[in-house]
Design a protein that fits this description.
The protein contains eleven helices and 15 strands. By secondary structure, it is an alpha+beta fold.
């Protein structure tokens, strides 16, 4: 049996080429996204030898009783695997055991249905669809549909004319974590498992902010941090935002940090024309908020479950 190892920041330099050469807009191809949630989903990785070089495999499961969920195998040169090849590689790692393939694109899901008719239960996972926006759209917020966003930003600037922005650095990370913990309490994380898990994921990310080579911006008003956001380049044309927090009592703070960070991305990474704001995790409030920014498209994802014990 191939040995799988927990994800560590020290693995990043080895793993990044596999993810970058895949050149996907999906958050599953971000090392940070995988790492920040690895403590919750017990994400591990292994390499498998092949004629063209090592293949990288990720798998996870939240509970020990759950079947393993695998990402499609990744080749360092960005080579795409057929459904037959991918399933054979995964099946060899889980002989006789049920497993699922997650983060599948619509094309991969179609190929899987065609190659293994009736053998996989395949369905879209709406809660994991990523929201994709043109960077310029988040900067300009033009048009009638985004007028409410512009109004809220104007309100924020009017109510808090002393507001300041700062890049997130080692010197202010502790303040960001303090603000995050206060936000979590306000939102009721003591009685909400998902928010509590998110708090842990945010801490895990900030503890290795430099090692993960992340970028971030914070917003101060009335002398305190009222919002912050964290992201990084994802692919040849897309930037990804991993974290965005704001105190809702500071009217317009969410909209302000969103626009200010889009301006930062546009200035620092002019070649990246999209911003991936990740998924909504099935939260209706978050879904409504992300849809209100008029995404240009969704990065759709599918899951395919295979149980050899119930298949012919």
């Amino acid at each position: 049996m191939r040995e799988f190892s927990p994800l560590s920041v020290t693995d990043r330099s080895f793993i990044i080429p596999f993810l970058k050469n895949a050149n996907k807009q999906s958050s599953e191809f971000s090392f940070t996204a995988l790492y920040m949630w690895a403590g919750i989903y017990n994400t591990t990785h292994a390499t498998v030898p092949s004629a063209s070089g090592p293949l990288l495999i990720f798998r996870s499961r939240k509970e020990e009783s759950d079947p393993y969920a695998y990402l499609y195998p990744l080749a360092e040169n960005g080579e795409e695997f057929s459904a037959d090849e991918a399933v054979q590689i995964i099946a060899d790692l889980s002989p006789g055991e049920p497993f699922s393939l997650w983060g599948l694109s619509e094309q991969q899901a179609g190929e899987l249905r065609k190659a293994f008719p009736g053998q996989f239960d395949i369905s879209p996972v709406r809660s994991s669809f990523d929201y994709l926006y043109p960077t310029s759209q988040l900067v300009l917020l033009g048009g009638k549909k985004l007028q409410p966003k512009r109004n809220l930003i104007s309100s924020f600037k009017r109510l808090y004319p002393d507001f300041l922005t700062e890049n997130i650095t080692a010197e202010n990370i502790a303040e960001c974590l303090k603000m995050n913990d206060e936000w979590c309490v306000k939102m009721g994380c003591r009685h909400n498992a998902a928010l509590s898990e998110e708090k842990c994921a945010v801490h895990r990310t900030f503890y290795h902010f430099q090692g993960l080579e992340l970028e971030g911006l914070l917003l101060r008003a009335e002398g305190r941090i009222v919002a912050f956001t964290v992201g990084e380049p994802l692919s040849s044309d897309t930037y990804i935002v991993h974290i965005e927090k704001a105190f809702p009592e500071y009217k317009g703070s969410y909209q302000a940090i969103n626009q200010l960070f889009a301006e930062y991305v546009q200035e620092k990474h002019p070649d990246l024309i999209y911003i991936n704001r990740e998924d909504d995790a099935g939260d209706e409030g978050l879904r409504k908020a992300k849809l209100s920014y008029q995404p240009v498209s969704m990065v759709e994802k599918y899951a395919g479950f295979f149980n050899p014990l119930t298949r012919p």
